[in-house]
Amino acid sequence: MDIDVVVIGSGISALKALYVAKLYNRNALAVDVHGGDGGYIQLLDGEDAVAKAPLFIDLDEADFLHSLGIDVKCYEVKHSVLKSGNYVLKTVGFIDIDVQMNWFIRWLNSNKLCFDVELFTKLKKSYEFPTYRPIHSVANIRKIDVEKKILALSTGTIIKYSKIVYTWPLELLPQNLYPNSIKNIIEQFLNQLELKYVSLYIYTTLAKSIEPKENLITIYTHATKASKIHTAIALHLHNKKIMYTATSYTKQHPLIPGIREKIVSELKKHRITNSIDALKKHYTNITYGLLNKINENILKELEQLLENHDIILFGRIAQWREKT
Ligand SMILES: Cc1cc2nc3c(=O)[nH]c(=O)nc-3n(C[C@H](O)[C@H](O)[C@H](O)COP(=O)(O)OP(=O)(O)OC[C@H]3O[C@@H](n4cnc5c(N)ncnc54)[C@H](O)[C@@H]3O)c2cc1C
After folding, report:
1. What tens digit of pLDDT does each residue of 2-21 get?
2. CATH topology of 2-40+124-193+294-319 equal to that of 44-116+196-291?
3. Is 52 within 8 Å of 42 (Cβ atoms)?
4. Which residues pair with 164 in a beta bridge?
5. What residues does each domain of the chain span?
6. Does pLDDT of 40 surpass 70?
7. Atom 5 of ligand 1 has which residue's CA nearest to it?
8. Over the stretch 66-106, which tens digit does the pLDDT of each residue have?
9. Cross-referenced InterPro entries, in alphabetical order (predicted)?
10. Residue 274: is its pLDDT beyond 70?
11. CB–CB of 119/130 below 8 Å?
12. Helix-strand-coil percent breakdown of the chain, rounded to 5?
C-alpha cells in the first residue's frame, strides 16, 4: 500500500495533520492502538458524550473556535479549598520537577473557562471528517524502516510512505525504528533530553444535576497528604453534572492499590458527590499529565534530524511542548 502521509495517533494533532494533508491533496492514513479517537479528550462510551479528561478553553481560544463555527460554553470559575497547604507540590506528586505548564494552576488562575463536552466531534465536523467513525485505523506499529520508508503494522499491512507525522509520546519513538544505527542515535538524544513527567489518574462521573449551577465551574482543592485527591472539578451542563477528580502519581510514588475506592470514599467524605447517583463512571490514566522543561536546542536538533528522515514530530507529547 502506498500512502503519502501516515499519521501516527488519533488525538487533536492527528486530526489537524489529516486535515492539512487533505488541504494539499495528499492521501493520508492515521493509525493508533486505541479504538476511540480523541486522544487525551477521548469520549466516555454511551449516549451522553463526555470527554474522559478535562480540557478547558481560554476566552481567546474560544474566539478562535467560534471562527470555526464551534460554539463553546463559558463558565465563571469558583475556587473551594477543602484543605490548604502546598497545593503545587501535591499536583506534581511531591517530587522535584520543573513543569512547563501546570494545568491545575492555570485553571485556578482563570476567572472564566470554556468547555465543550463534544469538542473533538465538533472539530472533526468543522474539518469535514465523518463524525460517526474514528479518524484512524486501529493497529499497532511493528516497524518503521526509515531507509526503505516502509512502515509495518500489527495487522500485517505494509505501507510505503513519503512522510510520517508522529503524535505519540516522544519517549516511545525509538522502539520501532529501524535500522539500529538511527534507533541508537534517537535514544542518545532522548537520554540527553531527560524527559520527566507527572502522571494523572482521573475519575470522571456524569450524574443528574440536583441543583444546576449553569454558569459555574467549581474547582475543589486539597493540598495535604491526608487525602489522595488534589483537585475535583464540577460543572453542570443542561441537567447533568460532570465531575473530574484528579490524583497525581510518578515513578517514585506510584498509585496505591485500591485507589478507586479511596477516591470515591474521599469524595463522599468531603460531601462533593455521591457516586451512587452517577449515571456513568470512568477511570483514566494520563501517563504524560505534566511535562518537564527540557533543553529546547537539543529538541530542535532532534526534530531536524527526524525531518531529514521524513518523520515530523507534531503535538503535545511528541514535541514535548505544551500549547503547540
Ligand atoms: C491534564 C491536562 C490538562 C490539559 N488541559 C488543557 C486545557 O485546559 N486547555 C488546552 O488547550 N489544552 C489542555 N491540555 C493539552 C491537551 O491535551 C492538548 O491540547 C491536546 O489534547 C493534545 O492533543 P495531541 O493530539 O497532541 O495529544 P494527545 O491527545 O495526548 O494524543 C496523542 C496520541 O498519543 C497517544 N498516547 C497518549 N498517551 C499515550 C501513552 N501513554 N502510550 C501510548 N500512546 C499514547 C494517544 O492515543 C494519541 O494517539 C491538557 C493536557 C493535560 C494532560
Report:
1. 999 999 999 999 999 999 99
2. no
3. yes
4. 6, 311
5. 2-40+124-193+294-319, 44-116+196-291
6. yes
7. 55
8. 888 888 889 999 999 999 999 999 999 999 999 999 999 99
9. FAD/NAD-bd_sf (IPR036188)
10. no
11. no
12. 30, 35, 40
Query: Which residue's alpha carbon is nearest to atom 51 within ligand 1?
Result: 289
Q: Which three cell numbers stand for residue 171?
A: 519517549
Q: How far is CA 264 from CA 53, 55, 203, in A?
A: 17, 22, 9
Strands 150-153 and 141-145, by their bridges, are antiparallel
When the pLDDT of each residue in the chain is averaged and rounded to a whole number, the result is 93
Q: Are 44 and 204 in contact (CB under 8 A)?
A: yes
Comparing CA positions, the residue from 299, 320, 294, 305 lying closest to residue 170 is 320
- Sign of the Cα pseudo-torsion (105, 85, 206, 284, in order): positive
Per mean pLDDT, which range of 63-72, 124-133, 295-304 is the poorest? 63-72
The set of cell numbers assigned to 65 is 473556535
Cα of 174 vs centre of ligand 1, distance in Å, is 20
- Does the 44-116+196-291 domain belong in CATH 1.10.10? no
CA-to-CA distance for 214 and 75, rounded, in angstroms? Answer: 8
Q: Atom 23 in ligand 1: which residue has the minimum CA distance? A: 12
**Within a 10 A sphere around the Cβ of 79, how many other Cβ atoms?**
12
CATH of 2-40+124-193+294-319, one of 3.40.50.150, 3.50.50.60, 3.40.50.10320, 3.90.226.10: 3.50.50.60
